[in-house]
Structure formats: C-alpha cells, structure tokens
Amino acid sequence: MTPIMLRIEADADEFKSKVEDMVIRTLHDGSIAPSTLLECVYYAIEPDVLATVRAVAALPPSERQMVMSYAKKLSDGTVG
User: Fold this and answer.
1) What pTM does this model have?
2) Contact at 8 Å (CB) between 13 and 5?
3) Cα–Cα distance, 50 to 80 (Å, whole number)
4) Which of 3, 12, 50, 56 is deepest in the core (most CB within 10 A)?
5) CA-to-CA distance for 13 and 39, rounded, in angstroms?
C-alpha cells in the first residue's frame, strides 16, 4: 500500500471508532430511538450527510451534545 492509502485507511478506522462510540453512547443514554438511528444510518449513505456526520463525530463531547440538541429541536420543529 502507498503512504496515502495507509493514511486513508487509518482515517477511516479512526472515523469508524468515533462513530461506534457515538452510536453506543447515544443508544445507552436513550437520546435517540433505535429506529431513528437506523433512519440516520440509511440517510448517511448520501455524501453530504456523511460529511456532516464526520464533522459532528470529530467534535468534543460537549459540542457534539449541543449539535445533537439543536438537531433534535429542528426535528421537533421547536426552533424558530
């Protein structure tokens, strides 16, 4: 493998690890229903959505929680 390919693979592994951690904590905390999480995974196939997920996964936990809280308000229609 070339150095670039190794770096891409390492980045992908790090991303997967962060996403797994976020999913486990989200399910454990009960902050999102499993069915909603599956729907999110389905939509994450879209490149723009996946880029957003990557950006959120890279945030520190406190900032990630703020994003999740705001997203929930958007979903509920309580942001205005």
Assistant:
1) 0.42
2) no
3) 26
4) 56
5) 23
The per-residue pLDDT for range 10-27, each reduced to its tens digit, is 677 777 777 777 777 777
Distance CA 44, CA 22 (A): 14
Of the candidates 79, 80, 56, 60, the one whose C-alpha atom is nearest the C-alpha of residue 68 is 56
First to last CA, the chain: 50
> Cα separation of 53 and 40, whole Å?
10
Q: What would the 3-class secondary structure string for the chain be?
A: CCHHHHHHHHHHHHHHHHHHHHHHHHHHHCCCCHHHHHHHHHHCCCHHHHHHHHHHHCCCHHHHHHHHHHHHHHHHCCCC
| Residues whose CB falls within 8 Å of the CB of residue 67, separated by 6 or more in sequence, listed in order | 56, 59
Amino acid letter for position 56: V
